[in-house]
Amino acid sequence: xxxxxxxETLAKQSxxxxxxxxxxxxxxxxxxxxxxxxxxxxKRMDKLEAEKRILQIKLDQPVxxxxxxxxxxNGDTATNLSTHIQTLRSEVARLKHTLLISQQExxxxxxxxxxxxxxxxxxxxxxxxxLQLEVERREALCRHLSESESRHDFRSLEMEEExxxxxxxxxxxxxxxRTVSSPVPYNPxxxxxxxxxxxxxxxxxxxxxxxxxxRCYACGQPSAPLFASSSPPGGHIVASSSRRTSDRFVKPAIxxxxxxxxxxxxxxxxxxPNPVAAPHPxxxxxxxxx
Length: 290
Fold this sequence. Notes:
The chain has helices at 2-64, 69-73, 78-171, 198-214, 242-248, 284-289, and strands spanning 257-258, 266-267.
């Protein structure tokens, strides 16, 4: 799915680049057409202005330079003058008609150019909106891709952490719970109210059961169990912290009661004087269990 999203992202990026190139080409073409149109219009206007000046000169010439009586007396008759006037008037009318037609053509061309420019601007706006939509879709796709990658990484981290924790729990070794992170030394007294994890409670109760059913807590001699021991209150770890506890707190040993199979319980005469040599400290609860 991620590869598909990446392929779609690349396709969108290529389409975006193509649209950008087309936009640049359209802008360049529009600028060139506008420049050509402006140049053409300027030339046309200059030509029309020149024609207008010529016509104005021709119209103003009879008024500014009238025919002198000498020329009339030199053989020009009234008929020739009237003919010449009619010719000039017809030429003026023709030029006015030509000017009017040229102005109409110019107006139509300007309207057409304005419409073309409007269409080009609308097309440019449409392309810009399309480009913006493509950019927004690409950003949304990138965000979705990054979110999916983050969720995938977080899920993989959770699975790795769970697998690591399960391996630690299944190994049964030195288990360090994630809830007990304080470096304070462990207190094995029955009045301790510090909660431990269920895995440590099970291991502590199992180690205590194994030791109490095989050996005595004071002398270390094998003894028969009276009843199945259960985990002490608070779920303390005895096997791993008994030697450190005995080094820190030395308690006088109490003569234990040794239970033998088929006989009454007897008291040991020579208890272990050195509590360090004993594998576990003799607490009242431990002696009661033996």
